[in-house]
Specification:
about 650 residues, alpha/beta, Rossmann fold, 5-stranded parallel sheet, 27 helices
Length: about 650
Amino acid sequence: MSNVSLKDMANAIRALSMDAIQKANSGHPGMPMGMADVATVLWTKFLKFDAAEPWWADRDRFVLSAGHGSMLLYSLLYLTGFEQATIDEIKNFRQLGSRMAGHPEYGHLDGVEVTTGPLGTGLATAVGMALAERMLNARYGDDLVDHYTWVIAGDGCLMEGVSHEAIDLAGHLKLNRLIVLWDDNNITIDGSTDVATSMDQHKRFEAAGWRVLTCDGHDFASIEKALAEAKNSDRPVMIDCKTIIGFGAPNKQGTEATHGAPLGEDEIKAARETLGWPYEPFEVPENILNAWREAGARGRAEREAWEGRLNASPKKDEFLRDLESKVWPSTLDALNDFKKQLAEERPKLATRQASQKSLEVIVNAQSNVIGGSADLTHSNLTIVKGMESVKPGDYSGRYIHYGIREFEMGCAMNGIALHKGFLNYGGTFLIFSDFMRGAIRLAALQGLPVTYVFTHDSIGLGEDGPTHQPVEILPALRAIPNMRVIRPADAVETAEAWAVALQSESTPTALALSRQGLPAVRTEHTDENLVAKGAYVLREPEGGRDVTILATGSEVEIAMNAADMLSQKGIKAAVVSMPCWELFEEQDEAYRQAVLGDAPRVAVEAAVEQGWRKWIGENGRFIGMKSFGASGPGPELYKHFGITAENVAKAAEELVGKA
């Protein structure tokens, strides 16, 4: 490497980036070219990694929050020798089936730590990664956990609102292993940043408790000095890297023309001359590639030393078990015992209360379950006795006070899941899931098994009124692919819902929980988890069905009462509890048919109808909401909006022709 200059190594990134984008006729060359010098210093001198072992547990995390600049990351992975990052993949950039998608996609390519693209979310997710590192370090010490989280963020990342939530939380928690490299080039798609912002980012970060440094993003000595200084901070660090977007493209650099479109053949030819890069497209001279490969192997000795410490550690088995981030069989056994107790005692509980009681069992049974809430701890009931809070500088606790930052909570939960070491959940009101929807979508997209404790799930919350009554949120969440929405009907179903969430390994779970008390509808114990089937027959009349009533959550009680009314009129009604549509869809056709039956169907849910036709058919009847709700006591609202056993029974009678 001594015979190869950092300039030549950085220009390899620039050339690969502009060539791949030109071949694809799609992409963003400006950021990779502008940040190539910074990335070269970071990856050759500071970033702790071993290209031969991409998922080494104590590696530094690298997050490209400005995900549109994906060719920067892909070039780095190829140059440093990540096996999956081949030159053929680079030539296939942005094409169908390529590991090198338009924006970095977690799970597609080794070395991509997180899916980035929606601006700001990479930075916000990195806060969770940095927090997980500190929390794991508090449990296992520097010998096993001692790494940094590095972020490259652009002007767009810092304009997005979630960036404020992220830097505020990170600054408060003093996450000094988090270092953000700001690509300060003053350009966005619309042109100069002056058209849209006058923010003093230095003062903003300093106000949030960060240390702020500055470097010339095209001066290797300046970059190295700033990175070295950042590693010795007692606070998170933002380094303002002054750069020129599209650096090296003589006619377009420094302008929006390099931001989101290929440079064009003529400009690429001129850039080759300007940069002193007289090589063919996709060609990296052997000496330069070898220098990069040496950088990729630089961390091998450190990794092997870490493996030696791990093998010698008395906590090895415990550490590796935690890193699996899976539920322990003993935890599920304890939860099943608790379920049996609930079936016997038949408590009338709000499902948020039942959730808290389930969490008491879970948290006491498994030490790496951690949780939090967006400032609604005692409404969501997400904390249990013995859970100490995570505090600035003290990360030994198990409960995170996310503050009124729902979007950041969702992103941080993703970061914790991506980092590995914990099973984590977070709570807020169901209505506020809209604030964090971008993070929920990314959890589903990446296959992250996080759990959302969404309470106050219907008009049953009452007096807070329509601004807080989530009538459209259930179908909105159900619309997200690879997402499980579970709305339990009582304490037993809630315990089963938690078991489902804990066993999920590649799907996020949203628990929709009631504010109001609900009677027990599951009064017989079975070791089988019926919620895991998505829907099941709660009541089957003798002699066949005249009608089937489908319900979720708090409306299962209404369905049961309606069935009683119908029975008195000689109408045989089956009741199906349907806590999770997605799990029901996973069952085989024979099971689904047995549950739904052939009789006419009525559905009742205190939400809008969207999606129910799939289950009740075109001729079925739906009893639910058609407005945003109102302010008043919950029971009165159910009557006001007609979500009553009487109306369910009436609809059933009309369907079977006995009205």
